[in-house]
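chain below, 536 aa
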Amino acid sequence: MSGQQINFDKSSLQFGHKVDAAVRTEVQETLGMVKLGGMGSYLGLPESLGGAKTQVFSFVRDRLNTHINGWSAKLLSKGGKEVMIKSVASALPTYVMSCFRLPKSITSKLTSAVAKFWWSSNGYSGGMHWRAWDKLCSSKCSGGLGFRDVNDFYTALLAKQLWRLIDYPNSLFAKVFKGSYYRNATPMEQVKSYSPSYGWRSMVSARSLVMKGLIKRVGTEDSISVWTDPWIPAQLPRPAKSCISVLANLSQRGINCDTRCGRCGDPMETVNHVIFDCPPARQTWALANVPVGPIGFPTASVFANMDYILRILVKEEYRFCPWILWYIWKSRNDMVFDNLDKNPSDVVRLATDEARTWYDAQLDDSNTTREGPVGDNVMPGLPSSIPSRFSGYRCFIDGSWKATDMYAGLGWFCQHAHNSSTTMGASNLRRSLSPLHSEVEALVWAMRCMIGHDFREVAFLTDCSDLVKMVSSPHEWPAFSVYLEDIKNDREEFSSFSLSFIPRNLNVKADYLARKARSSPHLIKFVNNCPSSWLI
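prediction:
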């Protein structure tokens, strides 16, 4: 025991407006506390948040104005003002904003006061505002000054509190909120509660921000729903059902239409019926020599049928099945929109021809003989500044990211230290949260490609200094813990592993591959068979 005791003279009680006077008196006498609270403040925050929030939080605006008015705008240069704004003005309301969402009228006045101080030349007038404040809040590399946007800043602080509830569910902080607002759910689920506190309403208002960067790592699969969980960051759930415009789905979405199949007259045209169960579709699968019958395939479940197709794809004679799926769907559309009834044998022939053409193109690309350095005009050869005593492989990696593009690009170029044999890869994936994410993803993919090629002595080279710092000090980058755990596990497969920084002009091959992959209009992945137009 610490020996500390409650000071009853400094303690106070606060009652709700529905508590009877007799009950209040009884509680006061039992606890020995006479003083009533609610009108003062504790740790700089008001004890009571009842009434208009603009009036409750007006002290934040007044406190900031007091500090700013005490600074002499005449004696401070722009650099001095920048330091004062970033170190003092932006830090003043931090504690309040980490607990409660401030009204927009308060945040706009805070922004106005700081902007007036920045543009004022004499300390009295507001001065000429030559640039919008939201532009100045952009990063310096984007043409701004890096000032904090008040709304974004306090949303981030509240999101941090919400993340604490998720990351530390056994803390007292989390247990109190769980018992009050989400007993049988998670903080991210929208659960209706009776008269929630303003603190809880403030935290849950940041759910959308947390969801943008929330990634679930697959573990025991106890809490994962394959069809409804968001698998792509910052995207809404994309279930694998009801996303094809067959008549049954159109009817479910409120479109008044005849749900009968236009090819066979079945009363309900579903995805499974069109692709697998319709007589022309059954005949197409049979002519393609895919075993069909009353037992096994096709079934009444589209998921079971797709699982069957995916399992037989590993066999050479069934590699054309994806093209069969596509051309069955196209033949259905030809019937619906153009009244053209295609013969199933023509569908099979067209699908197999397209499949054969595609596989031949892959074979041609992979067997093309290239002499001398590949792509000397665009991608110069290996730099002479890399030490030559290393006897393994040098793998140059890069990620390409652009905010306006749908995909991020990954590229790597690998060459043995003592011969001219080269391997390379280019791929793209859904655009991640930042350029640094794409750099990490490029490293993870390159490491796994090296493992697949059985290259165990590899020196990885990157033009991203933050990636080198991240791998060397993973505990300082908690936001990338999932990727860093993968890198740690994959490193154990190498007998010799290193990651070094090189200037960008020495990494043009990987950079070029990554940029070409990023600009592709669809998902791609090339390993040792990059299009020849990318290499000239």
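The chain has 21 helices and eight strands. The longest strand covers residues 407-416.
thats it, cya
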